[in-house]
Each structure stands twice: as C-alpha cells, then as structure tokens.
Amino acid sequence: MDQGGCSVLSENLWKEALKLFAGGVNSPVRAAVKPYPFYVDRSEGAFLYTVDGKRLIDYVLGYGPLFLGHRHPYVEKKIIEQVQKGWLYGTPSPVEIKLAEKIIRHLPSAQKIRFVNSGTEATMLALRLARGYTGREKILKFNGNYHGAHDYGLVEAGSAATEFNVSTSNGIPLSIRNTVEICEYNDLSCVEKTLKKEDIAGVIVEPVMGNMGLILPEKDFLKGLRELTKSYNSLLIFDEVITGFRLGLSGAQGYFGINPDLTTLGKIIGGGLPIGAVAGRAEIIDLLTPSGKVFNAGTFNANPLSMAAGLATIEVLEREKVYDTAKEATKAFSEELSILLERKGITFTLNRIESMFQVFFGVKKVTNATEAKQADKNTYFKMHQRMLEGGVFIPPSQFEVIFSSGAHNSSVVNTTIEVTRKVINEL
To answer: In its keyword annotation, does this UniProt entry include Cytoplasm (predicted)?
Structure first.
C-alpha cells in the first residue's frame, strides 16, 4: 500500500464538496490540510486508508475519541448487536443505565449523569445548570479553553478559530459576551480578583488544555480553583470532553485529585459515536427536567448506539492494557522528536501527559494561550505536511493535540520514528 496524503480522487471529491459546504467541510479544522483534505475510505487499528489507496498512521484519532484505535473488534461487535435490536426508540433502553453506572463508578465526583449528544451540548448544559443552581448569570472561563461551538463557550475560545485567525465571538450578541469573564490559564490571581468583584455562577476549565495545543496546569492551579470556587460559592466545572477516560479511568479529576462540582464528558465515552454528558453532584443534576426546573431535552439523548459503543469502550479499558500501550507510544514518539530537534538546534517546547502531546516551535515554554500563539505555527505545519507525505497523520493545526491509542504498538511507533527522523533532518 502506498504511503502519503492527497491525490486525484480526494481532489475531485474536494471540488464537489466546495459546491456543497461552507469552505468545503463541516468542521473547520478539516480544511487545514493543504492543498485539500484527503478523503478516507476505511480505517482499522492505528491506520487510515484513503480513497486514493494510501495508508496513514493516525495520531489524530477523530480528534481524541478513538482511544482504542479504529474499529476495535469488541466495540464493533457491540455496535452491530445494537443495530440489530434497533437504533432509536424514543424511550429509555437498558444500555444507558449500564453506561451511566460505569461512568459514575469511575468518576470520583459523579453521583448522577445526563446524556446529551456532543461536548458542545454538554458544556452548554453545564453552564445552564450552574446558573440555575446559583441564581447568578456570569461565568468565568480561560483564554484559549475551548468548550464547544455555542455562544457562551466561544468567547475567547481556542482550537480551529485560532488556526484560521477568526474571532470566535463573531455572531455572538454583546449581551452574552458581557456575561463571560476571562482569565489567563494558570493565573489564580485573576480568578480571585474576578470572583471577588463579580457574582460568578461557575468557573469552567479544561483541566488540561487540549484546544490550544497541549497546555498543562501548573502546580496547585486546579487545587487553587477548587478552593476559590468554594470560598465564593461558585461551581467548579471540569470540561473533561478530551481528558475523560484518557488520563485514566477516573479522568483528570482522578489524575490530579481534584473533585469538581460538575464534569462535562464526550469523545471517548461514546466510543467514536456522537455523545456528550454532564455528571456531578446529585443535588445539581436533579435540577434538570423532569425532576427540576432547568430544562434539557433531546431526541437523541442516550442514543442506544452511542450507549453501546461507549459501554464497550470502557469495558475494554477496564480489562486491556490500553493506557500502558498508548502512554508508551506517546513517550517514545515525543522523546525521539525532542532528541532530533535538539540535535538540529531548533528552539522548541514539548508538552506531554499520558497519551497526549504537542510541540511548539520558536518558544521555550507554553503555559497559556498567549504563549501558545507566539509559537511558529508555519514550521509546525511544514512538519505536519512532511509527516503526511511520509505516511503519518498528525493534526494539521498547531492548536490541536497529537493523540496515541491502544492500537499504536511498537511496530507502529517504530515506523513513526523512522518517518520523523527523515522529516526533522530535512526540516
């Protein structure tokens, strides 16, 4: 099978897509691959197979959800079994109870849960719950934290909008923007000043930033958020759409030992199918309709296919060495990349945690969005392009994360390292 990126069939599909979709895509980061995206015919394990007959080692993994790799046999089996039973009922199904029990058992702060259909829906609902619970209107978020594509979450958000130099506030009413306070990530002094002067319903944070590249919380940052929100009677909301079940079965909250009031989930808990969830203290979750007065509903909430895929995924995580394999893959890949860049005398910083990492060129540290934006994203994109030509797909955007999975075994990683050596030597 040939290695590489785009070719004739993908180009023809791209020309058709431009006639049908804004910018040719249905999510902007997909257009960051240049000169046009490659189109995927099928996938398996750590690999994507394009319509042009090319095989790519995948370190994007659907931007995080595919922690077992593509088409894990057990997950595929459970999805097929559910399809044969039906895929939408309009009534509850037993599998939603089983998945909820799994999540609540593993997530330290979770007592009850509400399933929705995406991370965007989950964060939107969490903020609504925070307002309903506290009776306050304002929220506090952090520069560059991405909490989905809804009005409140997009104020000073990260991700693909940064890549395309677009303000995420375009189209959002000033009245909504005025209810969102912004601090820099890792800046507790700003948080305390804001909580002191404003009635903040909730502080929402990515415990590990994954949409401005990878940015880690500094020592005591998350602990400080927990203490400050308690002091000022605001809710602490962990957006674990990325980190939930990726940093471990207990997510970032278990990893760092911090219990938020609410947690938003997505990606991995759906096994690659559309999903979102809000979990937290029972007294807060019980405010949702029909038991409470904060409204939420959804035709596809707790969709049986997503529930089956998510349950199967967590069952695999419980019994197989996915975390060890994925962590070792990221460690080997990132350490080799660091060695190669140091030998070339290239200035960079590399942030890593468990099965996630990102490299930033031209800067010596990245602890917040402002520092991330100073990185040389053109050099990063050149690396992406040359890796793609060599058969390795890393995110086309500097402001996304390089993910590994349980399918990234030593053979896959060794091939990745061979390509990386060639790319960096020519960079």
So the answer is: yes
CA 352, chain centre distance (Å): 15
Which pTM does this prediction carry? 0.95
Q: Which has the closest alpha carbon to 336: 424, 397, 411?
A: 424
Q: Per-residue pLDDT averaged across 112-136, rounded?
A: 98
pLDDT tens digits, residue range 275-307? 999 999 999 999 999 999 999 999 999 999 999
Spatial distance between the Cα atoms of 103 and 265, rounded to a whole number of angstroms: 10
H-run or E-run covering 235: strand 235-239
Which residue, among 44, 138, 117, 137, has the nearest Cα to 301 in the 3D structure? Answer: 117
165: left (phi over 0), alpha (psi -120 to 50) or beta: left
294: CB partners within 8 A, 6+ apart: 128, 129, 132, 133, 287, 288
| DSSP H or E segment with residue 57 | strand 54-58
Indicate the domain borders of the chain: 2-59+321-426, 73-318
Please list the active-site residues: 146, 239, 267
Work out the number of other CB atoms within 10 angstroms of the CB of residue 80.
Answer: 10
pLDDT in tens, 230-261: 999 999 999 999 999 999 999 999 999 999 99
Q: Residue 402 in 3-state DSSP?
A: strand
pLDDT of residue 341: 98
Q: What is the pLDDT of residues 24-40, one digit of tens each?
A: 999 999 999 999 999 99
- How far apart are the C-alpha atoms of 391 and 413, rounded to whole Å? 12
CATH topology of domain 73-318: Aspartate Aminotransferase; domain 2 (3.40.640)
